[in-house]
Design goal:
The chain has 7 helices and 46 strands. By secondary structure, the protein is mainly beta. The strands form 9 sheets. Strands 1, 2, 3, 6, 13, 14, 15 and 17 form an 8-stranded antiparallel sheet that branches. It has a 6-stranded antiparallel sheet with strand order 5-16-9-10-11-12. Strands 19, 21, 22, 24, 25 and 26 form a 6-stranded mixed sheet that branches. It starts with 6 loop residues before the first helix and ends with a strand.
């Protein structure tokens, strides 16, 4: 069915990375966890048959390469040489053009070295490594001086260009730095350094070029060489200087291209994002990486300091941060106020924050610029309390600081503690499961529950729900928008009873929890939620194939609403609608807020998220989420919408007929991007 650290820490990193010798320059990025799967270090240029060239793991026997296995300046023009500047040894590749017929092949008119990932990567991962996610890094430049041959066209020789000679993608997405997966019919991506004269589409531009964006299907039409369609992808920079790239690649699920890449440049933790279409280029049967100047119609030279890869998407931002917290994130029985962590890759000092709110501020700084990766909190931690802590990493310059992730833990108590729902909550489902953490040394729990606070506080018989071993309690179906109270007394050894605090919560009034939809005709999620198939916006509600409701990415229950948006084409906004029949009164019982939960994807293009209401007379009011990055956030975010913000626009909340959810600028539509968000648990609440 379907629907249309310290100095010593830094030194250790350098030695592990191989920086202790003179093979290649010190990386501007810290090493990823467990290092790279493979790294070529640029200091080897040995010839060899099969996968024995360069450092002994590369092949230039692919039926296309024409390297005569000579260095630059020897035999045919161009070649491959290991050169040294200062303490750095690097590989230089030069394709001088096409000198044939003199000399004939091998003529160095195409040089391409391939390194097989098959065997180094898990057999279940290698065939689809581009789709599943992979991270590569390389440091490279276009040379302008040193050992370089003249350009060749037959017997004609011309000087090497003073401004450098680069490369653009060719032959189905081939370039300087290539990566190909063998599975999925074969998919090829490349990255090349280019200057203005390398192609007409480079006019006035220099930088790193890659596959064009030309649809969502693999195609040979992704090149700049020739007159192929598609959008040029270029990260503008000075390519004749050494530049270090850290690139993550994964399948694009936004409907823009086949893959999305995040390119981090020269140590920066902030990426540039590009959408690419995979090409059909292929030189080996394996999944492989390659380094090349491999096009007969082009000439070019390239210096390579290092080139490495690692399966999986690993951003350098995470490598800079502190990790490995103790207490562990989410620990619910902490007794010792000792905090430890693993330093970020370039950190020498650490700022430690500890507080009772996830919004840690300067007032929560408990240890500044400590060289130790531990902190002992001398003040007392409150039993049964929830704490949040963070470690910001300070680099050697003393001013560069990498803000850490916020971790949380709960301290243990003698009485029952850490109730769920949290006490005072006003957005609780009508059939909740209540839970708590047991006190120290507890053997049983006495549960009290009632809509009468006094009955619970006095442990009245009518509120008693008995004694149990479990730390959960299901009260059954509750009334909407009503306050309830509960308490758990802990029974320890020797029949010692420790009275618990009275906790409270208020239930919500559900609007849509998305649990009732099925894959049957008339009961599908898009039969109720109107989308672009009907309202002619760029939206699509539901998966294209059954199950139509989302059953993997959910906030609670078993299903959520998947909403695809595409604002690349007119009308440049995407909207889904829920119609209420009969109309609803959203003023009763003290209702003042609409709450929903939203989750995006990191690969999404940021767009404005909005919500609207329409009453029975057709009057509409809209509100927007304050941060467009919400659609890129890969975790569930609670959005509270004050209903007076809509009623102030003239909407009669006593006669609500329709609810709108949309992505884009509805009032002033402009061309935007595409992606997918998820929505769950739309509810009404009162204070």
């Amino acid at each position: 069915m379907y629907r249309k650290t310290s100095y010593r820490g830094v030194l250790i990193v350098l030695l592990v990375a191989g920086f202790g010798g003179s093979a290649f320059a010190q990386s501007l990025f810290p090493a990823p966890p467990t290092w790279w799967t493979y790294m070529y270090q640029g200091d080897k240029a040995a010839p060899g048959a099969g996968f024995t060239a360069l450092d002994g793991t590369w092949s230039h026997d692919n039926g296309s390469d024409s390297w005569d296995e000579s260095a630059i300046g020897v035999r045919s023009p161009g070649g491959a040489s290991a050169l040294t500047e200062g303490n750095v040894t690097f590989l230089r590749l030069q394709d001088c053009g096409d000198p044939r017929p003199s000399p004939a092949d091998p003529s160095n008119r195409k040089i391409m070295f391939g390194h097989s990932m098959t065997g180094r990567v898990d057999a279940a991962v290698a065939p689809n490594i581009l789709d599943n996610g992979v991270t590569i890094t390389f440091r490279a430049r276009i040379p302008t001086s040193g050992l370089l041959d003249q350009l060749a066209s037959g017997a004609t020789r011309t000087p090497y260009p003073a401004g450098g000679d680069g490369y653009v993608p060719h032959d189905g997405g081939k370039g300087n730095f290539n990566i190909r997966q063998s599975g999925g019919g074969g998919k090829h991506l490349s990255f090349s350094l280019a200057v203005e004269g390398d192609d007409d589409e480079m006019a006035g531009r220099r930088g790193l070029v890659m596959n064009k964006l030309n649809g969502t299907a693999v195609t040979g039409n992704v090149d700049m060489q020739g007159t192929e369609p598609g959008t040029v992808n270029i990260l503008e920079l000075e390519p004749t200087q050494w530049n270090e790239f850290w690139i993550t690649i994964q399948a694009d699920t936004s409907g823009t291209g086949t893959h999305v890449v995040h390119i981090y440049l020269n140590g920066s933790p902030e990426p540039s994002v590009f959408y690419l279409t995979a090409g059909t280029g292929n030189d080996y049967s394996d999944s492989y990486i390659s380094m090349a100047v491999g096009s007969t119609p082009q000439s070019g030279a390239l210096d390579i300091d290092f080139y490495a890869y690692k399966p999986g998407v690993t951003s350098p931002d995470g490598v800079y941060k502190a990790s490995g917290p103790s207490p562990a994130h989410g620990d619910s029985a902490v007794n010792m106020p000792l905090f430890q962590w693993k330093a970020g890759g370039t950190a020498v000092l650490h700022n430690v924050y500890l507080g009772t709110s996830p919004e840690l501020t300067a007032a929560d700084l408990v240890q500044a610029r400590t060289p130790l990766t531990m902190y002992f909190h001398v003040p007392t931690l409150t039993p049964g309390a929830t704490y949040y802590w963070r470690v910001d990493e300070v680099e050697m310059d003393g001013t560069t600081i990498h803000k850490g992730n916020v971790w949380t833990f709960v301290t243990q108590a003698l009485t029952a503690y850490h109730p769920s729902p949290a006490t005072g909550g006003n957005n609780v489902a009508l059939a909740p499961v209540l839970s708590w953490l047991p006190g120290l040394g507890v053997v049983e729990h006495r549960v009290y529950f009632s809509a009468d606070r006094n009955a619970v506080a006095q442990a009245a018989a009518g509120a008693s729900k008995g004694v149990q071993k479990e730390t959960t309690f299901t009260p059954g179906a509750l009334e909407p928008l009503k306050a309830y109270y509960w308490r758990v007394d802990e029974v320890a050894a020797g029949n010692e009873v420790r009275a618990g605090a009275v906790w409270s919560f208020t239930t919500c009034r559900p609007v849509d929890d998305f649990e009732s939809y099925t894959d049957d005709e008339g009961k599908r999620i898009f039969d109720t939620w109107i989308d672009g198939w009907t309202n002619n916006t760029g939206s699509q509600v539901g998966n294209f194939q059954a199950p139509f409701a989302e059953r993997t990415v959910v906030y609670s229950g078993k299903q959520s609403l998947p909403l695809d948006y595409n604002n690349i084409d007119a009308p440049f906004y995407s909207e889904a609608e829920l119609v209420f029949a009969p109309v609803q009164d959203w003023t009763a019982d003290g209702i003042d807020t609409l709450v929903l939960y939203v989750r995006g994807r990191s690969a999404n293009v940021a767009e404005t998220l909005y919500l609207g209401l329409e009453d029975s007379t057709g009057r509409k009011g809209f509100v927007t989420y304050p941060d467009a990055a919400i659609v890129k956030t890969g975790k569930w975010t609670e959005w509270k919408v004050a209903l007076n913000a809509v009623s102030d626009a003239g909407v009669n909340l006593a006669r609500v007929k329709k609810l709108y959810l949309g992505v884009g600028d509805r009032a002033k539509p402009v061309k935007g991007g595409a992606g997918r968000i998820y929505v769950d648990d739309i509810r009404l609440t009162k204070p």
